[in-house]
Amino acid sequence: MRHWIGALGAVAVGFGLAAVPEMATAEGLTLSRSTMNRAGVFKSQAKLLDGRLAKQYEGSARLKPKTPESLLPQPTARYSGRYKGEYLEAAKAAARRHGVPEDLFLRLVQQESGWNPGAVSVKGATGLAQLMPGTAQLLRVDINDPLQNLDGGARYLKMMFSKFGNWQLALAAYNAGPQAVEKHAGIPPYAETQNYVKVVWGG
């Protein structure tokens, strides 16, 4: 957004200061021709645009679950699992590919499947990242292929982060589903989910 505001400020200066006082007066600003300089033009216009954009996005910001201080960004605990097998580097690569903290994703896989590519839960979650069949179909990955399973898990976790803007809420959505996080406007009050977030996040 700052690049956009800067570009508008440059355009305003480029057209000359003669046209700016009229625009400033129309917006309720009281800058005069004699005192206005280039820095003043940029500052006043940037402030005006910032105010408008803040009002424009105020409503959409309220749609996201509230983030308590305990959920604000914090350093992710390092992965300290004993697994050093063939899928470790593949999991790291999947995390990097989709912009997920490596240690966070490694802890997720450890918690989900214990690094067992053949793990299947009673609910049907499958593989290293324990993807549900419907999620795998949505992501167009082969749920039974360990590498695709990891890629799908990392991609889905990043999707949840993009939706909720917070890694702990993303973990809660990964475990309980995004609808549960939306319904409770935060981590759902389910013992399993709360413990899952605590363990994977490293709290």
UniProtKB/TrEMBL annotation:
Domain Transglycosylase SLT: 91-191
InterPro entries, sorted: Lysozyme-like_dom_sf (IPR023346), Transglycosylase_SLT_dom_1 (IPR008258)
Superkingdom, taxonomy of origin: Bacteria
Pfam families noted in UniProt: SLT (PF01464)
Family: Belongs to the transglycosylase Slt family. Belongs to the virb1 family.
Protein name per UniProt: Transglycosylase-like protein with SLT domain
Species in which this protein is naturally found: Cereibacter ovatus
